[in-house]
Amino acid sequence: IGLCSLLLVIQLLGQLLLIPQGTFFGQIMFLSSFAASWVYNLYLSAIDKEYIQEQLLLKVLNLDEQHMQTYILGTRTAAAVFACLMLQPHGTGFKPESIIHNFIPNDTPVWVTWRKKILKVMRRRTLAGLLTVRDEDVKGFNEDDKELLEKLLKDARIAYDLATKKQWLA
């Protein structure tokens, strides 16, 4: 690509220097090639590349449109929990710790507590009161931290409820 770009620049400079010395027919040919290049670039920029990539991916993975759905979740934490639940296979070897940590790398005490509670839910595949705030969870937290933890756990419950509603979790 770099070599082609270099050759096109050399061609452009050569034509700019030689066209004024050429014939009228040569000048018309240069301008027409310039117009054709402009129209072709306009055509290429108008192509919906995301749609083409999506169709190729679906074809390669032997999937159809029903497998591709968009979900809008209110917060990043809900999206992280939902994505982790969706990626969770039923077999062994799944490491939700690394996925959750990559999605949300915060290491403050509130986030560490939240992450531990979320990982328990993912390992057990049941809520069973795990996404509630207990006194031992918030020991040493100020009121803002307690409120933040409650909001984060509420977001996780929303994501978990959506995943169970869509029957991805047993």
Account of the 3D structure:
This protein is mostly helical and 170 residues long. Helix content is 65%, strand content 0%. The protein contains seven helices and no strands. The chain is elongated and about 90 Å long. The mean pLDDT is 78.
Mean pLDDT: 78
Tell me the strand percentage band: under 5%
**Low confidence ranges:** none
- Number of helical runs? 7
The counted number of beta strands is 0
For the terminal residues, how far apart are their CA atoms?
A: 51 Å
Whole-angstrom Rg: 28 Å
Derived structural class: mainly alpha
Give the H and E element order.
HHHHHHH
Largest sheet data: none
- Principal-axes geometry comes out as elongated
Short description:
The protein has 170 residues and is mostly helical. It has seven helices and no strands.
Detail the topology: elements first, then pairings.
Layout: H1 2-18, H2 24-46, H3 49-60, H4 76-87, H5 96-103, H6 109-124, H7 143-165
